Amino acid sequence: MSTFKAPKGTFDLIPPFSATYLAVRDAISAPLRKSGYGYVETPGFEDVNLFARGVGESTDIVTKEMYTLTTKGGSNLALRPEGTASVLRAALEANMHKAGGLPVKLWYSGSYYRYERPQKGRYRHFSQVGAEAIGAEDPALDAELIILADQAYRSLGLREFRILLNSLGDKQCRPVYREALQTFLRGLDLDEETLRRAEINPLRVLDDKREAVQKQLGDAPLLKDYLCEECKAYHEEVRALLTAAGVAFEDDPKLVRGLDYYTRTTFEFVHDGLGSQSAVGGGGRYDGLSEMIGGPALPSVGWALGVDRTVLALEAEGIQLDIPPATSVFAVPLGDEARKVLFGLVTELRKEGVATDFSFGAKGLKAHMKNANRSGARFAVVAGERDLAEGVVQLKDMESGEQQPVALDRLIETVKAKLA
Q1: Cβ-count burial of 396 within 10 angstroms (0-12 exposed, 13-18 middle, 19+ buried)?
Q2: Helix 174-186 and helix 192-200: axis angle, to 10°?
Q3: 178-194 b/e with 16+ CB inside 10 Å = b?
Q4: 2 three-class SS
Q5: What is the C-alpha to C-alpha distance for residues 168 and 254, in angstroms, rounded to an integer?
Q6: Burial category of 21 from C-beta neighbours within 10 Å (exposed 0-12, middle 13-18, buried 19 and up)
Q7: Closest CA to 280 of 131, 160, 134, 144
Q8: Distance between CA 131 and CA 91 in Å, rounded?
Q9: What share of the chain is helix, strand, coil (3-state, %, to 5)?
Q10: Which are the contacts of 142, defined by CB distance < 8 A and separation ≥ 6?
Q11: What is the pTM of this model?
Q12: How are beta strands 392-397 and 45-47 bridged, if at all?
């Protein structure tokens, strides 16, 4: 037993469970890779002000949940709590927006960190796959991203998720709504911290999960009633494109996202089988974020889907992914000469693309075959001194138990044919 354990609110991904996470990441990113999105990877920590400006100083993420540190050189850094600000920073720093061909379409996968109260579906270290389309204001781009996320989830076999959709307006119409909402909130029985938040960003109060707060918000003014004609038309086109693509969604006029940078289109993927932590992913348009962090005006849209919560959604629906075994062939040497010969064959099989492993360290046939069984391999290649003298190895089908001699120089083609 180790002296050390994983920090509170985190967990280790180990085989065979980790294979499901890899499969989920691959499934979420697959539609993106086929749609012009290139991979980007950013550092695990950034200047703390990148998130304070972009995510919002009034958000719980910035005020309560960020892991911050001061370097020996005096720099103030934060472990990244979300991906959008980092990806946009990277694109701006590399001048990708000046290379032509906007939007810049990027996808990413990585770990994120928030100091939250640990519970199922909410961890202090979690993983996401995300996508960002930077530099274009087009309803079709918003619809494309929602459709790609929908395709990703359906490719995994998920069916019991819902897409919630709303518009948060823009810099023209949202200030009018903001004032109306603040006036409403000032008349409620709210604690001082919530009232302070209402003065900084009243939309954040709508996202408050406490029942005592939600009970008072039933008659709160709705943003959809304050949208300007341009925002209404934009939102209607997003809705029409999704409908034409056969993607079902639910209009949710109370949907707001927990980050300050969202404008216009906002959406969330929820799965009712996950209890209180029902959101498995979400995103929206963030037309002003580039300017917030010192860049030019670059209207953009994106999303992030939680890998951890997607795995929980699969469990809730009883879905087991068809994950191929890590090993197809397992080599069992009986004797020193067989050890040398089979080790060489293992290397050659791997070169030919066959997932192959070797029985290391074991002594005796029984111990070797236990290793073969544990590997999950379809075939075992067994050889002793007598087999080698005859120029053969024994190929055993681990499912049927059938065994046949195969000439050494024909092993690779025989194995590949049987696995085809």
Answers
A1: buried
A2: 160
A3: bebbeebbeebebeeeb
A4: coil
A5: 10
A6: middle
A7: 160
A8: 13
A9: 40, 20, 40
A10: 238, 264, 265, 284, 285, 301
A11: 0.90
A12: unpaired
Contacts 24+ apart (CB under 8 A), 396-405: 398/330, 398/372, 398/373
Closest C-alpha among 239, 289, 263, 60 to residue 177: 263
pLDDT tens per residue across all 420 residues of the chain: 678 999 999 999 999 899 999 999 999 999 999 999 999 999 999 999 999 887 766 566 777 889 999 999 999 999 999 999 999 999 999 999 999 889 999 999 999 999 988 888 789 999 999 999 999 999 999 999 999 999 999 999 999 999 999 999 998 898 899 899 999 999 999 998 888 888 888 888 887 878 889 899 989 999 899 999 999 999 999 999 999 999 999 999 888 876 667 889 999 999 988 887 789 999 999 998 999 999 999 999 999 999 999 999 999 999 999 998 899 999 999 999 999 999 999 999 999 999 999 999 877 889 999 999 999 999 999 999 999 999 999 999 999 999 999 999 999 999 999 998
Cis before 103 (ω within 30): yes
Task: Report yes or no: 385 and 375 within 8 Å, Cβ to Cβ.
Answer: no
Retrieve residue 120's tokens. Answer: 């199922």
* Phi, psi angles (nearest 5°) of residue 35: -125, 20
Question: Two tokens at 124?
Answer: 């202090």
Two structure tokens written together for 15 = 């085989």
Pairing of strands 38-39, 104-113: parallel
Q: 2: which 2 tokens?
A: 């180790």
Query: In this structure, is the dihedral angle defined by the CA atoms of residues 104, 110, 116 and 122, taken in order, positive or negative?
Result: positive
| 164's tokens | 């919630």
Q: Give the whole-angstrom CA distance, residue 393 versus residue 381.
A: 7
CB 112 within 8 A of CB 81: yes
Structure token pair of residue 98? 């000046």
Of 56, 390, 37, 319, the residue nearest 197 (C-alpha):
56
Instruction: Give me 230's structure tokens.
Output: 């341009």
